[in-house]
Amino acid sequence: MALVLTGCASTGSQTSQAPDLDDPWEGFNRKVFVFNDVLDRYALKPVAKGYRTVTPEPLQLGVGNFFSNLGELRTTANSLLQGKPANAGRSTSRFLVNSTMGLGGLFDIASLMNLEADEEDFGQTLAVWGWQDSRYLVLPLLGPSTLRDTTGLPADMAAYPVTYVDDDAVRAGLTALNIIDTRAGLLDQEALIQGDRYRFIRDAYLQRRQFEISDGVLGDDPFSADDFELDDADFAD
Fold it and tell me: Which residue from 28, 57, 103, 237 lies 20 to 30 Å from 224 (Cα-Cα)?
């Protein structure tokens, strides 16, 4: 707690800036962010580094493929809820192919067959249903989110097969392995963070979520419009 309070004091001057419209709870979010950051720095990150050091790369890839394959069921359900039957069909096909030919999802055979699907979750479904704009929220342990995405978490958990594993030890072990593998995959990306760590991660998260919600559609490009024309005056000094 002393480390958390020290971190909060060091960010006090930054929170005096004008609040971001997407982040009206920045003061609270920063405190949770510092708590998560301390926990990550002294617990999760060292474990993730050790995992990546001792685990052969092919095995790491297999672990990532396994958990990604389980997520196809969530994608299928949310694709149907969003009115995207084609994506639901591709996701279902990926799950069947990887679960059988890919030995339970350890091998991503579907991608080798050019069978791809856009990942979908219930937060994206709520956005498609009309909840477009949502306030940024940092969750203890879970990290960056929004009020909309947090609302969708119970439905996402209900659509994830690990939730239904009866053995508590096995369920906890699978969850821990998923978290550690995911964290190990983010180690190299930390070098990209510049400036205010909190705001960099917040902006990156919100931009990525918007990209996922819009299925990669970035909006109209004025330079591609049919009626866009240039004349000599546009190039005058």
Answer: 237
**Residue 231: is its pLDDT beyond 60?**
no
DSSP sequence for 120-131: --HHHHHHHTT-
Which of 36, 39, 47 lies closest to 187, judged by CA? 47
Encoded tokens for 119: 């990942």
HSE at residue 184, side-chain half, CA atoms within 13 A, is 22
C-alpha pair distances (Å), 42 with each of 48, 54, 145, 232? 11, 19, 22, 61
Q: Which two tokens stand for residue 68?
A: 């990604």
State if pTM tops 0.90.
Answer: no
Alpha-carbon gap, residue 182 to 70, rounded angstroms = 14
- Give the closest residue to 105 by CA, choosing from 161, 50, 166, 53: 161
